[in-house]
Amino acid sequence: MTLKGHEGSVSQCAFNKFERLYATCSWDKNVLLYDATTGSFRREGPTILPKVHEGSVAACHMSNNGKLLVTGGYDLRVVLWDLEAMTHKIILRGHADWINDVCMTSDDKWIVSVSSDCEIRLWHIANCDNRLVMDNSKLLKIVNCHRCGKNFSSNKIKRDESEATPAAPAVLLCVFCRMEQKQTVAPTHTYSLDDYDQPAFNEAILHK
């Protein structure tokens, strides 16, 4: 199957978990959708989403259920799309340089964007005006998550040393374990993922 429609270099392709809906983005500033279930693109061509990006679109990623799409471009914008309404939901701003890649977490609740400004931003889809920021301009060090045992990198670890004691030390958790933690059962001490008042969270989201 050959998908056609772009007039410039195709930068990325994304699809839902059923592999029946495809999205592509390109240097021609367009984001195209191909529905393999109906095959209508063979007769009518792909669906062209409204042109929201003002520059080349570098990356795209689709939610597992195929209802949401996130794109990032050289116009410094991260755009969240509603694929049922075929329109954009919100434009996320904050990066100071080209967006190189975007993705959504497996539960479709978070957007991760990476940029040439040396920042990784984590956006909560339900509250997209608030984002966590990791500044990668300093030397990172590798630390170990106390829950899953995976390594992640950080250049400034936030601790609540005033409350930590030898009997109840501060707990080092990676960002994914903190997202899964919810708030139903809070550990004795942990770093706050919900501290949106800080301008920079300064933690890498490298999870091997």
Automatic annotation (TrEMBL):
SUPFAM superfamilies: WD40 repeat-like. Pfam families: WD40. Keywords: Repeat, WD repeat. PROSITE patterns: WD_REPEATS_1, WD_REPEATS_2, WD_REPEATS_REGION. Signal peptide: none annotated. WD repeats lie at residues 3-44, 50-84, 92-125. PANTHER family: PTHR45048, WD REPEAT-CONTAINING PROTEIN 88. This is Uncharacterized protein. It comes from Adineta ricciae.
